[in-house]
Design the sequence.
């Protein structure tokens, strides 16, 4: 989640960035990234130490308690730093660090009331929007597994829930049913397909939350948005070196992360295609991601964690399709669109992906079983 640039003078940006500078001079401040939540800038400094850092204005319409986000980020990044100090890895791995202001604060607020923070920059790295090959799939899995591993011994209650309801499928289903009760959809083959698709799977929406309520799946810390372009790769070794975009780290189920990583990584057609016949869940990529993930995550996983992995993969694709379809029915009020039917088309992509996952259930379960 990063960058839509709003009007902001260079002078203002420099003045804000200077509050986080402890040594050196600012050389440049430029727009950075391509997301649509926060405003993000890369600050270049003339210093004997680090040459860059990230400056962000937090979107307080989305994150209404930004102080809690910073509190969370400080807690888990320092925990990870201590873990790595105590037991260094045999390969490069970094986490973005919270940078303090000269006054020792984790953020500053400008004259207009905007909330700003600074975080360290992962040098000599880049991200990708689509999966390049099986080796990269394994590295994506490794990155998520390493992130989960490093926070697996941090009690969930140490972090605030900064986005209540996020990735709780029954709540999205309830919202969908409320929207449907208030609207009369314009029927078409596509709308009819979506209506029937959701209707056939309403009971399934509760699978993971029921397992959590029954004590089968423990509450842990999750990343919340582990899609492929939130993993940074070393530009020389092409190995994963970091997981970024940490605003959504909160108490939850690791299954939501596993499902979302596989949903976004194993759909070669991409989320915006309208060639619905081309959509399929690539089990080779699935195997690669899971192999990388389990290479570092086995230590904290339980037998039940494995038992619900397939359900997680299926559920998150369904959940995102449900959210897109509900937004379409509501008049496109949440997700940005390029045309009136955009969210309907996005929903169908996720539902077709869900169908592909369902059609390969036995194979996916076998992949999971073979890796235990």
Sequence:
């Amino acid at each position: 989640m990063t960058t839509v640039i709003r009007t902001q003078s260079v002078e203002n940006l420099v003045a804000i960035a200077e509050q986080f500078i402890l040594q050196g001079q600012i050389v440049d401040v430029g727009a950075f990234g391509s997301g649509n939540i926060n405003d993000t800038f890369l600050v270049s400094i003339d210093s004997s130490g680090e040459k860059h850092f990230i400056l962000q204005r937090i979107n307080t319409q989305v994150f209404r308690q930004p102080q809690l986000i910073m509190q969370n980020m400080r807690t888990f990044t320092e925990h990870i730093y201590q873990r790595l100090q105590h037991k260094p890895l045999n390969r490069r791995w970094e986490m973005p660090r919270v940078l303090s202001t000269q006054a020792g604060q984790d953020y500053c607020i400008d004259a207009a009331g905007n909330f700003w923070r600074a975080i360290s920059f992962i040098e000599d790295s880049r991200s990708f929007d689509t999966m390049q090959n099986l080796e990269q799939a394994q590295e994506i899995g490794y990155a998520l597994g390493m992130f989960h591993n490093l926070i697996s011994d941090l009690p969930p209650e140490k972090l605030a829930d900064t986005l209540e309801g996020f990735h709780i499928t029954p709540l999205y289903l309830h919202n969908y049913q409320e929207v449907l009760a208030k609207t009369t959809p314009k029927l078409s083959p596509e709308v009819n397909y979506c209506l029937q698709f959701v209707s056939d799977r309403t009971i399934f929406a509760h699978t993971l939350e029921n397992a959590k309520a029954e004590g089968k799946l423990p509450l842990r810390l999750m990343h919340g948005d582990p899609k492929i372009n939130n993993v940074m790769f070393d530009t020389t070794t092409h190995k994963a070196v970091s997981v970024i975009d940490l605003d959504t780290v909160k108490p939850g189920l690791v299954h939501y992360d596993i499902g979302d990583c596989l949903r976004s990584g194993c759909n070669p057609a991409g989320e915006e295609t309208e060639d619905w016949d081309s959509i399929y869940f690539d089990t080779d990529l699935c195997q690669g991601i899971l192999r990388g993930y389990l290479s570092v995550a086995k230590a904290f996983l339980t037998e039940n964690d494995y038992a619900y992995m397939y359900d997680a993969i299926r559920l998150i694709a369904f959940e995102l399709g449900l959210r897109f379809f509900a937004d379409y029915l509501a008049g496109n009020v949440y997700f940005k669109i390029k045309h009136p039917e955009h969210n309907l088309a996005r929903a169908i992509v996720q539902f077709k992906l869900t169908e592909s996952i369902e059609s390969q259930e036995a194979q996916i379960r076998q992949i999971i079983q073979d890796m235990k």
The radius of gyration is 21 Å.
